């Protein structure tokens, strides 16, 4: 049984991949903390909406002329939120703040551990249901 085909496990795997990549980006930021003109980077946040988007999704087909077309407004939940840039810039042009990077690294590590524990619990749940015949 390949667990990667199940929706929850696929979602957890994608989140773990994103967290791994984020740790790499944070490590690069920390390694370049003293490099002149280096600009700190970060990944686009992993959102539930983006995780569920799939290019293979089926689009609804209008079978009647009175069916309404789906629309997405420009306001509400679809609006992009602006993030303020929390970085300070040093006189040499470097904007990496080690304290912020360490906080991000710690949070990313905790998130990874949380997803790993959730993954283990789901596998154990499937094992117990298979053993009990349920």
TrEMBL record:
It comes from Azospirillum argentinense. It comes from the Bacteria. InterPro entries: Flag_bb_rod_N (IPR001444), FlgB (IPR006300). This is Flagellar basal body rod protein FlgB. Keywords: Bacterial flagellum, Cell projection, Cilium, Flagellum. Residues 22-39 form the Flagellar basal body rod protein N-terminal domain. GO terms for biological process: bacterial-type flagellum-dependent cell motility. It is found in: Bacterial flagellum basal body. The keyword Cytoplasm does not apply. Pfam families: Flg_bb_rod. Residues 61-86 have a biased composition (Polar residues). Structural component of flagellum, the bacterial motility apparatus. Part of the rod structure of flagellar basal body. Belongs to the flagella basal body rod proteins family. GO terms for cellular component: bacterial-type flagellum basal body, rod. The gene is flgB. The basal body constitutes a major portion of the flagellar organelle and consists of a number of rings mounted on a central rod. Residues 54-95 are annotated as: Disordered. The keyword Iron-sulfur does not apply.
């Amino acid at each position: 049984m390949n667990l990667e085909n199940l929706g929850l496990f696929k979602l957890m795997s994608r989140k773990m991949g994103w967290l791994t990549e984020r740790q790499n980006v944070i490590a690069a930021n920390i390694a370049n903390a003293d490099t002149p003109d280096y600009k700190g980077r970060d990944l686009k946040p992993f959102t539930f909406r983006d995780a569920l988007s799939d290019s293979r999704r089926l689009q609804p087909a209008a079978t009647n002329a009175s069916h309404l077309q789906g629309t997405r407004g420009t306001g509400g939940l679809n609006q992009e939120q602006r993030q303020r840039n929390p970085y300070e810039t040093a006189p040499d042009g470097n904007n990496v703040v080690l304290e912020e990077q360490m906080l991000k690294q710690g949070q990313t590590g905790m998130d990874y551990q949380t997803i790993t524990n959730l993954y283990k619990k789901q596998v154990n749940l499937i094992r117990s249901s298979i053993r009990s015949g349920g």
